[in-house]
Amino acid sequence: MRKPAPKLTVGWREWAGLPDLEVPEIKVKVDTGALTSALHAIHVHRFTEAGRRRVGFEIHPFQRRSHPTIRCTADLVGERRVTSSTGHHEYRPVIRTSILLAGVRWPIDLTLTNRDSMGFRMLLGRRAMRRRLLVNPSASFLCGAPAGPNHAT
Q1: How far apart are CA 133 and CA 8, in angstroms?
Q2: Looking at the domain covering 13-98+110-136, what would its CATH class be?
Q3: Residues 54-109: pLDDT tens digits?
Q4: What long-range pairs does 42-45 form, CB within 8 A, spacing at least 24?
Q5: pTM for the whole thing?
Q6: CA distance linking residue 7 with residue 131, whole number of Å
Q7: What are phi and psi for residue 126, nearest 5 degrees?
Q8: Largest separation between any pair of C-alpha atoms in the chain
Q9: Virtual CA dihedral for 149, 73, 39, 71, nearest 10 degrees?
Q10: What Å distances lie between residue 143 and 38, 43, 60, 101, CA to CA?
Q11: Which of 15, 34, 39, 44 is most buried, judged by most C-beta within 10 A?
Q12: How does DSSP classify residue 64?
């Protein structure tokens, strides 16, 4: 029998990267109450390229800031009906990308939505955490702070 890989312990908020999207750092709320992960995205547009369904969008990775703007393109893997914490239903585009947290990289699905009014530009939901993370809800930034000058805790 194969021994399960050790799980990374994280706090309720962490700094992570999205290397496939060229996002070096974004503050993530580790949300055990959310099934689906979500990324702040604006100017979302769907298109077809070489027979593949794609989505283009822009993100502002830092809370309460409209700069920098990072333009992203990714394969569209589907649409998902999501119920927000306020009970509002919304169909969101879904992309598959990789997350980098504490030097560990793995693939996750992200729904794209405008999170300007929310406290975090990204939520990491249970599907992305499954079999990989243990959450210490009384701790923050157990994986360390990013090296860049643009972050604020």
Answers
A1: 5
A2: mainly beta
A3: 999 999 888 878 888 999 999 999 999 988 777 888 899 999 999 999 999 999 99
A4: 42/114, 42/116, 44/93, 44/112
A5: 0.88
A6: 7
A7: -60, -35
A8: 50
A9: 40
A10: 20, 31, 22, 7
A11: 39
A12: T
Is residue 96 within 8 A of residue 75, CB to CB? The reply is yes
What are the structure tokens assigned to 93, written together? Answer: 């585009």
Rounded CA-CA distance 27/20 in Å is: 17
- Give the 3-state secondary structure of 97-151: EEEEECCEEEEEEEEEECCCCCCCCEEECHHHHCCCEEEECCCCCCCCCCCCCCC
Token output for 45? 């547009």
Residues 6+ apart with CB under 8 A from 118: 40
Q: And the tokens for 77?
A: 């893997």
AA identity, residue 67: H
Residue 61 half-sphere exposure toward CB, CA atoms < 13 A: 23
Domain boundaries, the chain: 13-98+110-136
